[in-house]
Amino acid sequence: MLALARLTAAVLVVASVTGLAADAPPDRAFATARTVMGEHPEIWVGASIARGKYAVVVTGHAASTPPSLSTPPSLSTPGARAGAGLADVADSARRTVARVWGQADAVILVPATDEQAEVLASPSGVAGLAALADVDHVIVAPSGFGRLSPTGRRVVLAHELTHVATGAALSGDMPAWLVEGFADYVGYHGSGLTARAVAAELAAEVRSGTPPVALPGREAFRPGGPRLPQAYEEAWLACRYLADRYGEHALVALYRAARRHGITTALVETLGTDLAELTAAWRGYLRRELA
């Protein structure tokens, strides 16, 4: 999940994404879209389906007949045109994920209302969020996502598609700071945004002399939490520090190792450090980047 408040700084900067991994056509994405639409068919009556190079975007709107997944969608309706535009953004976000992590399916569901998004995301909910990743697709919260800048939308989709690619929904024992921080690291990859722009709330705390003392735990990421923006910023800067210090490949290796063996063993195996040393180094990095 990526909180909506985190993206207010991403108003004017245009993302720059280069390079493309070897990828397969989105036929599997269509199969996924067909399956997830079938779970709540009442939401998708009259929906439009847009296909990018890799992404499939399903956009809900009022109509009397369901869409067909067997033929190319018509772009004659506003929903279809909006979906086509979002498919381009999703393609860009997916390329970013592929550069850092590897291939990822990109199935984006855009229901007509936030109430429908809540149904699709149940039991997690989408309050205060722009989008939410499920196991194999991303659910967009229309009102939150609609307030984002073009860069903010790409960042959000790259963040959530990272969760899909890494299987975050199935990794309940992973440390939250690594799961969310890594997704943010990928999301902001190539955006050109500075640490102070992205982490404005945390920067204010660091400048006031009250920096965090520990990496954020799972409770810190609960929607509506008093320091939710800071939790994401702390996690992002932890992963950014690891990439700056050890290299992006080492950050990816740490994530993969943590999925297999847990974070304690992964830190020793991949970086030769432990959580205490990482925390101390991260706190120093926050002061250098934000003070």
Automatic annotation (TrEMBL):
Swiss-Prot/TrEMBL keywords: Signal
- The stretch of residues making up the signal peptide is 1-21
Please report the name of this protein according to its UniProt entry.
DUF4157 domain-containing protein
Organism of origin: Microtetraspora malaysiensis
